[in-house]
Design a protein that fits this description.
With about 475 residues, the protein is α+β, with helices and mostly antiparallel strands. It folds into three domains: about 100 residues, set domain protein methyltransferase, domain 1; about 140 residues, set domain protein methyltransferase, domain 1; about 160 residues, Rubisco LSMT, substrate-binding domain (set domain protein methyltransferase, domain 2, Alpha-Beta Complex). A hairpin with an 8-residue loop joins strand 2 and strand 3. Bound molecules: S-adenosylmethionine (SAM).
């Protein structure tokens, strides 16, 4: 380690920090020409979680806070193992597209000579990662029942295990000069998956590429962006990352006052997504992007409950298979509700419309293939916004009301029980942090569902939409 005296003064580097790892990282930033404005500094003090960036002086909207040259990004192209990853491209392809980066990280993270050592050493053992994938299954099922996270984590864990056993381990074994199965274990792989989940960035496609890659949903592989990944997230963020051909820049999107934390955005993330991917949550009130799902199958179940005769049930089966054929609903699909209304409004509108049709109407609908005529998008959005819900046709409203009830029953406790816990500071203080985060997710989802339930209460208003 070099002494303070030998260390060059890095612009924006708050040398008063006694954090040696941070000092080494800032020194490395200087060497790779990653430039930082002297109006900001990295710190563990005053931030919402561990490292974060703080404003030292007032910052104007549009100011560049730091700039990262492209050769300081860590991905399979910049890693020392680039050539061997490139050679084996075909073998390493998998559905997530993460394997090459994960192999590069396994190598760089454990290599004492790695060019990336001062950066990766900021997280010596990934102790701070506490995604639900590290909780026990019992804990997940107890705390997160109904939130959708349990199933998402089970799928992740199955995929991680399979990816490691089928692709990574054989590859490591055949490249024993670079990797070693005793060091590069499944446990390390799992920690690195969580690290990539919560610290990596994915460059958005340029417009031309987007047009070409119409069917490709996940075209750019993830990469590690030193410094940008030191910023924490809030939905009401004040900075964002911009991509240009030479470098990536963190730019203030609002003015930031001295003493405030600089927050990036990880995207428009509901609390369940934040907990699943990043291991934290925002208070439901503060997260403007919070959502709750009603599974497609739950709306089907609600319609079956409302069907009064065998004939109705039979008709319903036909309607459901029509909706499946149209690609509107599916086994794993869900309707998503935000704080202001349904975000998958076209799908829900068509589903309610078809499920609530009389038999002759449905026959005509099928014959005329009327479904190919799109409904007016603005009208659909308005009808399924919170403002529009009380005015839905009574049959639609009833169906949505029953479906919401079923969705709410999937949770262990009611919304009032969670509200009481959240309002009692003493109880909250005694709660462990997993419990608190799970509570935020459950409470937010239930509040959104409860709101739909209230807005679709029968007899609340006369119908306008039919
Ligand atoms: C990209 S890193 C940010 C740097 C991180 N604080 C550190 O010290 O390494 C993302 C991680 O920071 C934490 N984090 C980010 N925003 C947060 C927030 N608003 N509240 C709590 N934790 C947050 C979570 O642990 C998340 O997985």
């Amino acid at each position: 380690m070099s002494s303070d005296a030998k260390r060059p003064k890095v612009e924006g580097d708050y040398v008063e920090t006694r954090d040696e790892r941070l000092q080494n990282f800032l020194q490395w930033c200087h060497e790779v020409e990653l430039t930082i404005s002297n109006k900001v500094f990295l710190s563990k003090e005053g931030t919402v979680a561990e490292y974060g960036m703080m404003a030292k002086q007032n910052i104007d909207e549009g100011e560049v806070l730091f700039s990262i040259p492209r050769n300081a990004l860590l991905n399979q192209q910049t890693s020392k193992v680039k050539a061997v990853l490139e050679e084996s491209k075909g073998i390493l392809e998998n559905t997530s597209g993460w394997v090459p980066l994960l192999l590069a990280l396994m190598y760089e993270y454990t290599s004492p000579q790695s060019h990336w050592k001062p950066y990766l050493s900021l997280w010596p053992d990934f102790k701070a990662l506490d995604h639900p994938m590290f909780w026990s299954k019992e804990e997940r099922n107890k705390l997160l029942k109904g939130t959708g996270i349990c199933q998402a984590v089970e799928t992740d864990l199955t995929n991680i295990q399979k990816e490691y056993t089928d692709i990574v381990l054989p590859f490591i074994q055949s490249h024993s000069n670079l990797w070693n199965p005793e060091k590069h274990t499944l446990d390390l792989y799992k920690s690195l998956v969580a690290f990539v989940m919560s610290y990596s960035f994915q460059e958005p496609l340029k417009e031309e590429e987007e047009e070409e890659e119409d069917d490709n949903e996940d075209p750019n592989p993830p990469m590690m962006v030193p410094m940008a990944d030191m910023l924490n997230h809030v939905s009401n963020h004040n900075a964002k990352l911009e991509y240009s051909p030479d470098c990536l820049k963190m730019v203030a999107v609002h003015s930031i006052q001295a003493g405030e934390e600089v927050f990036n955005t990880y995207g428009q993330m509901a609390n369940w997504q934040l907990l699943h991917m990043y291991g934290f949550t925002e208070p439901h009130e503060e997260n403007v992007h919070d959502t709750a799902d009603i599974k497609n199958s739950v709306v089907h179940q609600a319609a079956l409950q409302l069907a009064q005769t065998e004939e109705d049930q039979h008709l319903l089966t036909e309607k459901w298979s029509t909706l499946c054929d149209m690609g509107i609903v599916g086994d794993k699909g869900a309707f998503i509700f935000g704080k202001k209304g349904c975000l998958t409004d076209t799908e829900l509108y068509t589903t309610l419309k078809v499920l609530c049709m009389e038999k002759d109407e449905f026959d005509a609908f099928q014959e005329d293939r009327e479904w190919e005529e799109a409904d007016d998008e603005d009208e659909v959005t308005q009808a399924l916004s919170n403002e529009g819900l009380p005015d839905l046709a009574p049959t639609w409203r009833r169906l949505l009301h029953v479906a919401t009830g079923i969705a709410l029953n999937a949770y262990t406790e009611g919304v009032e029980a969670d509200r009481m816990l959240l309002e009692d500071q003493e109880v909250l203080g005694r709660m462990n942090s997993r419990n608190r985060r799970a509570l935020q997710v459950r409470y937010g989802q239930k509040m959104i569902l409860r709101q739909i339930q209230q807005l679709t209460q029968s007899g609340s208003s006369t119908s306008k939409t039919s």
